[in-house]
Every structure is written in C-alpha cells, then in structure tokens.
Design goal:
- By secondary structure, the chain is α+β, with helices and mostly antiparallel strands.
- It has three domains: 99 residues, SH3 type barrels, CATH 2.30.30; 62 residues, SH3 Domains (SH3 type barrels), CATH 2.30.30; 122 residues, endopeptidase domain like (from Nostoc punctiforme) (endopeptidase fold (from Nostoc punctiforme)).
- The protein is 16% helix and 34% strand.
- It has five helices and 22 strands.
C-alpha cells in the first residue's frame, strides 16, 4: 500500500485519517493571514514561481526585489524584452517579459477562489497523485493559485486549481489556504521560526530565499500590515513608532547599521534578548541571534514598534 497516494479502501481508519487531514488543513490555512498583494489595477500576472526584479533592463544589473507566482503587477514601461513593473508595496523594477503574462490572458481574477500557498514550498501536480509524475511546479510560500469551479468539494486531500497560463493542475489542501484573519504577534513569531535555515538571497522575498528586509516585511504582512520593502524605509515608515531598547517587546523591529542614517540590516525581536533575522553573518540564512552579542549590540541603531 502507498499511503502517500491513499490508494486504499475507504474504511474506518482512513476516515479518521481524512478527518485528521481536514483538521491540519484548517490549521494550516489559518497560519497565512496575508500574502504578497496584487496591484488593484494590475495588467500583468507573474507566471514563474519567483521572478527577480532588476534595477535596470538587464539580467546583469542588481536584483532589487522579487515577486511571486500569481501576483498581479502594473506595467510602467517596456524596453526590448524587459518590462518595468510596480508591485502593491509601491516598489518598481525590471522583469523579463517572459516572466509575466497579460491579465486578460491569465485565469487570475476569474470566477475561481484564490488560494495562497501556506507551506514553505508546495508541489503542484498534473493529477491528484504524488507518485505518478514529477511536480509541474514548485511554488514558494505566499504564491497564489485559483480553485477551478469543478474542483471536487468532497475530496479531503486535493484541490483542482487553474494556473496562470490556463492549464489545470492539483495541489494538496494541506499546502494552501484562503486568506485568513491577521495573525497575533505570537502567531507571527511562530511563523517566523518555520523559516529557520532558509537561505539568504539578496533581493529575496520568498521561501526560496529572503533578504533581511524581505523577511521582516513578510512577517509584518502576516499581521495584515503592508510596510515598505527596504530596511531604511521601514525604520522611517509612518506605520512604526520608536521604542527604547530597554522597553523592547516581542514583534518589535530592530535596525542595524553604522549610524541611524545608514541602516543596512533588520530583524524581529523574539523576547528574552533574542531576535530572528535573515543574515549572511556567521552562516547565511534565517537564524536566531542574541542582541547583546557582537556585532549586533554595537550595530543596533534603531528600534521600532509597528502601530496597531
């Protein structure tokens, strides 16, 4: 018997397994309060799992950010095979034209209900089986897919979804969920710890690899709040207030640099003198550090609390 495919008779034990699976799905769906938002007047939809946004219309320029599968963006100008886009957090950059499709050619915004990926990485299959074929897509946390109108409502394990280019596929229900209520600070910190070990990627905004400010922006978004993309802009954002170091509370934001006007790094305070961040220091990736340790205690230049 291959339990992974549930290719077994529907008996009492399997019914109990299905109920447990449904409970897991419910809990996982609640873990995701927010996702990368689509621009309200979007005319393009991201068609690859993670798309780099470049500073200039060339892949040889700096990656300034990323945008995820299924997200709607606004085109600003075109230059050869490159398009400058704007995302919902008002960030702009250049993407290859092959990494996006016109919204009219996409299924996004059709009659189906949108789902957000709630797993760190979700596999998307051509049929409701994990053993028959390799995944057709591997999508990061917060990617967007759409339930098809004919998706079986009595299938405890699978959703049938429509992808950006119009083809249908299948995703396990435990990997996705609808947009839920904003998370509490404690819930947000629990989400943060799920990413421990995720690699550092300059310009990264996905579970394939974050940078420091992409990571904290994603965490604050789980509370239903969209803050600026870059660390220095986050520290100066009107949605935060300054707090003294001695008054830090879990969920507060920490900013590091040579001076308060030259912020180069950020993280989120966990309490008890510890914070979580995505850094290249020591070993690259999401990790927990001690605020009183070097170099962090020397480099801390600003502490902020997100307004409720």
């Amino acid at each position: 018997m291959r339990a992974e495919g549930w290719n077994v008779p529907w008996d009492g034990s399997i019914r109990q397994s299905a109920m447990r699976w449904l409970l897991i799905c419910t809990l996982m769906a609640r873990l995701l309060a927010g996702a990368q938002q689509s621009v309200p007047d979007a005319d393009l939809v991201v068609s690859h799992p993670v798309v780099n946004m470049y500073k200039s219309a060339t892949g040889d320029s700096e990656v300034v950010s990323q945008v995820l599968y299924g997200t709607g963006v606004l085109s600003l100008e075109k230059q050869g095979d490159w398009i400058r886009i704007r995302t919902a957090d008002d960030y702009t950059g250049w993407v290859a034209s092959g990494d996006v499709v016109g919204r009219s050619a996409s299924s996004s915004g059709a009659e189906g209900k949108s789902l957000r990926v709630t797993a760190i990485i979700a596999n998307v299959y051509r049929e409701p089986d994990v053993t028959e074929h390799a995944p057709v897509l591997r999508l990061p946390w917060e990617s967007i897919v759409e339930i098809t109108p004919d998706s079986p409502k009595d299938n405890a394990r699978w959703w049938k979804v429509r992808l950006v280019h119009g083809q249908t596929a299948w995703v396990q229900r435990g990997d996705v969920g609808e947009k839920g209520a904003p998370l509490s600070i404690d819930e947000t910190l629990n989400v943060a710890k799920r990413f421990l070990g995720t690699t550092y990627t300059w310009g990264g905004t996905s579970s394939f690899g974050f940078d420091c400010s992409g990571f904290t922006q994603m965490l604050v978004r789980q509370r239903g709040i969209e803050m600026p993309r870059d660390a220095d802009l986050q520290a100066g954002w009107t949605g935060v207030v300054s707090v003294d170091r001695k008054d830090l509370q879990p969920g507060d934001l920490l900013f590091f640099g040579s001076t308060a006007s030259k912020i180069t790094h950020t993280g989120m305070y966990l309490g008890q003198g510890k914070f979580i961040h995505d850094t290249t220091h020591d070993h690259p990736g999401v990790q927990i550090s001690v605020l009183d340790d070097m170099p962090w205690t020397k480099l801390l230049v600003a502490t902020r609390r997100v307004k409720q």
